[in-house]
Specification:
mainly alpha, 3-stranded mixed β-sheet, about 50% helix, globular
């Protein structure tokens, strides 16, 4: 992340998004023309022109729990799975499991922050946690209310 983005937004939860997130986790070979950052509230000032910002105001858990760059990038990649992940589902699961084992990812915070994530992200997070052997943590991620939403979110696991 550009140092200007990090220094001007000390209280924001910032991480890579879209192609930037999937590329960072090894889920895509696409190198985006511009870095895309997901930011929990206001956009930092003085960002370079080659940085695109997507605002995630409603995903308050990211900010209130102080998620770091690796944790936000993980959630963004889960959100982008059906649009930006290029690898097969089994390889993607392995990449996500590897990301969960990273020293930078604090499972408890990610699980708690998931309460304000969209249903598709929550369902995919549950599946990835299960796959990685974190059954207890997976059980703490809120389920989607509508089974159809859950089914649609998890289609990425079958192909």
């Amino acid at each position: 992340m550009p140092s200007s983005a990090r220094s001007s937004a000390t209280r924001e939860a910032i991480g890579a998004a879209e192609w930037s997130a999937t590329n960072a986790l090894g889920l895509s070979t696409q190198v985006p023309r511009q870095l895309t950052l997901a930011i929990s509230t206001r956009s930092p000032r003085n960002l370079p022109r080659d940085v695109k910002v997507v605002r995630r105001d409603a995903r308050r858990g990211r900010r209130t729990l102080g998620l770091n760059e690796a944790e936000v990038t993980l959630l963004e990649a889960l959100d982008a799975w059906d649009r930006y992940v290029e690898v097969p589902a089994d390889e993607a699961l392995d990449c996500f499991a590897r990301a969960l084992r990273s020293r930078e990812v604090r499972l408890d915070r990610v699980v708690r922050a998931s309460a304000t994530e969209p249903p598709a992200v929550r369902e995919r997070l549950r599946a990835v946690l299960q796959y990685a052997g974190h059954t207890h943590a997976a059980g703490r991620v809120p389920r989607a209310r509508d089974k159809r939403t859950a089914d649609k979110a998890l289609r990425v696991l079958v192909g």
